[in-house]
Amino acid sequence: MRRGRILKIFLGAGICLTAGIMVNHITSMTTTMCTEKELAGMSYTLQQYVDTQSAGAASDPEAIVAFPDDPAQNAPAAPGTDPNAPAVSDGAVAPEPTPSATPKPKSEYDNVGISVAADYVNVRKKPNTDSKVLGKLYRGSAATIREKTGDWVKIKSGQVEGYIKSDYLAIGFSAEKLVDKFGTKIATVNTETLKVREAKNTECAVLTLVSGEESFEILREDKEWVKIMVDGDTKGFVSKEYVDISVKFKKAVSIEEEREEARKKAAAAAAAAREDMAQQQSSQPSSNSGSSDNSNNSSGSKGNSGGGSSSNKSGGGGSSMKGSAGKSNQSDSSDKSSGGSSSNNSSGALGSGDGSAIASYALQFVGNPYVYGGSSLTHGTDCSGFSQAVFRKFGINLPRTSSAQSGVGKKISVSSARAGDLIFYARNGHVNHVAICIGGGKVVHASNPTTGITTSNIGYRTPYCARRVISG
Fold it and tell me: Residue 375: enclosing H or E segment and its boundaries?
């Protein structure tokens, strides 16, 4: 009995031990399977996310794939930084941010219009073709654009402000292409006195000096020098450092200006016709030399090309006739004084007259053309031809060249010059230009082919000398 009981105890312990081992094994297997399933599920979810992100990135090769657990990706971006920019290591310099859009290039002529009309385009009061015409913008003339209204633009040019159809204007970059064709480059002196040199260096000869704030046409522009037209045949180089360069265009012409210009041209043409008639009369020999009246007239025709016709235009012409031919016994002296000989005339006046009348007469021809070798006040003249023609009107015969004219009359200081005096300019010590003083520190002269007959300050270039050829 005792032996059977012990056997039962051992058998029960074995059964318990076996049951415990099996329970532990089953628990271990269950834990392992659960863990593997969890890892398998997590791996599937991660792979699915990457596949989704990669599919989206395929359309943008430069896109950066972001992971949700990356704290750098979830952190808010610093102000002014690109959250998608690649990371920069310590000490490295971050690249410049790329602009989101390239700015559109802008022309300095965006607000400038140049007329491309065959001849001219009307400037109207309102933006329609039925509106009143205020003026004309001729081909190549320029205007400032104030505003745009549909197919029309409001412009300001000279004294004219009104509307033009935009089709007739080159604007912006289109206008830039026409600058060399229609614009004139101008050099304005920005120093007190500037040397005009023979060549592009500071070692060469100085042709003349020009004064501050005077403007001259640019003939050629280089990197450091510009070649300018001073007057007549005086052309030289000045340093770009001492000039301000601008572009000058012709302006619109108002209806009133056009009428005034027509009136001036008619007056100038009439004056030229009288001048031609007087020259023809002076070239005809007198048939009654014995008559004192005819003798006086003959004297007047030699020394006064205006003759009786000079009194029709200007009181100055009449006064010069009285001074040079008022007495019959003055006819010889008048002929001698008007012959142009510097040896006979260097110590005194060539005739009498009103300097203001001479200046007023000369100013009528401002704007008319410069022609080298010419002597027509309307069709073209050079500087000495201009002074000769003007003074001939008042009974005074000047030599043909500026150099010869600088030896007649009485030498005076430039500072004491008054209306009717002659002002001379020189190149390398030789006179090569002449102008007529009109008072107020200004002269009128046939300057150059670009400006024609114009007015300038008396010191626009350094004066060489001044001569007084009239008394009174």
Answer: strand 375-376
* Backbone phi and psi for residue 420, each to the nearest 5 degrees, phi listed first: 100, -10
Pairing state between β 234-239 and 225-231: antiparallel
Q: Which long-range contacts (CB under 8 A, 24 or more apart) does 441-446 make?
A: 444/359, 444/362, 444/363, 444/366, 445/231, 445/383, 445/386, 445/387, 446/232, 446/370, 446/381, 446/382, 446/383, 446/385, 446/386
Q: Convert the pLDDT of each residue in 287-327 to its tens digit.
A: 444 433 333 333 333 333 333 333 333 333 333 333 333 33
In sequence order, the β-bridge partners of residue 216 are 187
In terms of Cβ atoms closer than 10 Å to its own Cβ (0-12, 13-18, 19+), residue 201 is exposed
Give the whole-angstrom CA distance, residue 155 versus residue 252.
Answer: 10
Question: Which DSSP category does 184 fall into?
Answer: E
* CA 444 – CA 360 distance, rounded (Å): 10
244 close to 127: Cβ distance less than 8 angstroms: no
Identify the residue with better confidence: 18 or 410: 410
Query: Do the beta carbons of residue 191 and residue 212 sit within 8 Å?
Result: yes
Specify the pLDDT at position 272.
72
The one-letter amino acid code at 96 reads E
How far CA 67 is from CA of 8, 54, 72, in Å, comes to 65, 12, 10
167: which 2 tokens? 């089709």
| Residue 356, pLDDT above cutoff 60 | yes
Average pLDDT over residues 265-288: 72
Name residues whose C-beta falls within 8 Å of residue 54's C-beta, 6 or more positions apart in sequence.
Answer: 65
Band (97; pLDDT cuts 50, 70, 90): low
> Would you state the structure tokens that stand for residue 146, as one six-digit string?
């104030």
Q: Which range, of 20-24, 56-60, 289-293, 379-383, averages the lowest pLDDT? A: 289-293
Look at residue 116 and give its three-state secondary structure.
Answer: coil
Q: How many whole angstroms separate alpha carbon 50 and alpha carbon 55?
A: 8
C-alpha distances out from residue 303 to 138, 173, 361, Å: 44, 59, 18
